[in-house]
Design a protein that fits this description.
The chain is α/β, with parallel strands linked by helices. Helix content is about 35%, strand content about 25%. Helix 5 links the parallel strand 5 and strand 6.
Length: about 240
């Protein structure tokens, strides 16, 4: 039976998941689009429910079929592809890293940047990401920007002080305009790369604990780079320089 009413309880609950409060209360987040939903399923994510329009329902056995109008109402995208899923947010208690190279995002407020960094971190092999007072990595915009990267990394959101406590004993390498050239810097075998916020950079608390700072050389006419771009350059160069 196809759901055609926007006032359907399931439909309203899905639409509410665009709000962080509802995601926190339900423990669910949204994944939209054919490829992301298929990847969420194949990667073993805990799927609560899949919703699809008639044209895509055959690809998702057991899904809940909805009309095009209802899909548009539930979706956060301007041009919905016709399928979306509600997925359980992984339960990850804040802890010390279990891998040698991790990432700390310090106060990033743009969910698009957060999602893009998660995407790049997954590609570069950074499997654990700490988010100190950042935008929600499970918001629709962040999930979309992660391009399924959110399925393959562990994220640890939390207050800055608690995260820094969890990272005690791990060298912090901060991306900073006054740091050493990241293209020649040789990092230790174990480290945490720290990326500051788009507007104000790294917090005083993180800077005070940093063992080293790295920078990206730029021509004088360029004041700064986007946080996600900077993070990508630093992540790859630190990994590459470890092997030299």
């Amino acid at each position: 039976m196809t759901i055609t009413s926007k006032s359907n309880q399931k439909v309203k609950q899905v639409r509410f998941l665009r709000d962080k409060k509802q995601r926190d209360e339900t423990g669910l987040y949204l994944v939209e689009g054919t490829k992301p939903v298929l990847e969420a399923i194949s990667s073993g994510q805990a799927i609560e429910e899949v919703f699809a329009t008639a044209k895509l329902a055959h690809m998702f056995p057991g899904c809940t079929e909805v009309s095009e109008e209802v899909m548009a109402f539930m979706s956060t995208e301007q041009c919905p592809q016709g399928v979306m899923a509600t997925v359980h947010i992984p339960e990850t208690a804040l802890r010390a890293p279990k891998v040698p190279n991790v990432l700390l995002l310090d106060g990033l407020q743009d969910p698009g940047n957060v999602g893009t960094i998660i995407r790049t971190a997954n590609a570069a092999g950074y499997r654990e990401i700490y988010l100190a007072d950042c935008a929600d990595p499970f918001s629709p915009k962040a999930v979309r920007a992660s391009m399924s990267g959110i399925f393959y990394v562990q994220v640890f959101p939390g207050p800055r002080k608690e995260i820094l406590d969890a990272l005690k004993g791990i060298p912090l390498i901060c991306a900073d305009m006054k740091g050493e050239d990241v293209f020649s810097y040789r990092p230790p075998s174990r480290f945490c790369l720290c990326i500051g916020s788009e507007g104000s950079g790294l917090s005083a608390e993180v800077e005070a604990l940093s063992q080293n700072k790295v920078s990206i050389p730029m021509v004088e006419s360029c004041e700064s780079l986007n946080a996600a771009v900077s993070a990508g350059i630093c992540m790859y160069n630190l990994k590459n320089n470890m092997k030299r």
